[in-house]
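[Q] Does anyone have a clean structure-token version of this?
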Amino acid sequence: MDCRRRLTRIGITALLPALALFTGLGVAASASASTTSTAAQRAEAAAAQARAAIKNLVVGFQRSPALKVVHRSTGVKGLSQVESTNWSGYADTGSGFSHVTASWTEPKGVSSGRRTTSLAAFWVGIDGYSSDTVEQDGTLIESYEGTVYYYDWWEIYPENDVQVVADVSPGDSITSTVTRSGDSYTLSVTDSTHPADSFSTTQTYSGAADSSAEWIAEAPSGSSGVYPLTDFGTWTDSGSAVTEGSTSGVISSFTDDEITMVNGDTGAVEAQPGALNSSGNGFTVTWESS
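[A] Here you go.
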């Protein structure tokens, strides 16, 4: 056999294991990419299902029995302690409210497991406390089939259900605002951490009472009633401001009610508000149970 042909045969034979190795790596890389793509597709499909599950969600609607006053202090601007089956936070009452705002860091929700869908909404709004209308916006935590999702949204009830706008993330810096001018309401949520997830919309609605302003953590409602409340740990509302008529102030500037969320059947506390801070413009709500 010619020496050069022998060397060529030896060289090819020596390369075969290496070629097999590279081929195997290529197959493995392709399989890994395919697995990643499939996982991403599954996650996207699951997220779409989670959004679909809250398509007809209602926030800001007081379930019956709506409110129970457990203690009312004296004075024109005295604090009342109130129980609700789906709200926790503070509400100012009066007339001619035209502006409400607050800021918070989006809490991190705890999964309620694959078998239970739970929700927790954080919002500011005009109306809803002493009327059948509400103009509001904020953020929402949804635990759906073992995964926790986060959104921002707005709603004018009863004109529409919750309008989900974008995904947000736990730890995001959020500012939620509702401003009225006549029958025009500008609803905006600013995500300073991820500005692309912010929104602002102006809606016209002539049926509003403009009789209250709220800063609320809520267990939202669906067709079957109030959802279990997602464990959110603690929600801290800050920088709260409000305008009633020609007067601007903070929560404590007007007649304000402190609202504790309780289970409608057992009376157990589900979300407990803390006292207003020394500036009267902030407080915490602590999750207690679903």
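[Q] Thanks! Anything notable?
[A] The first strand starts at residue 67 and ends at 72.
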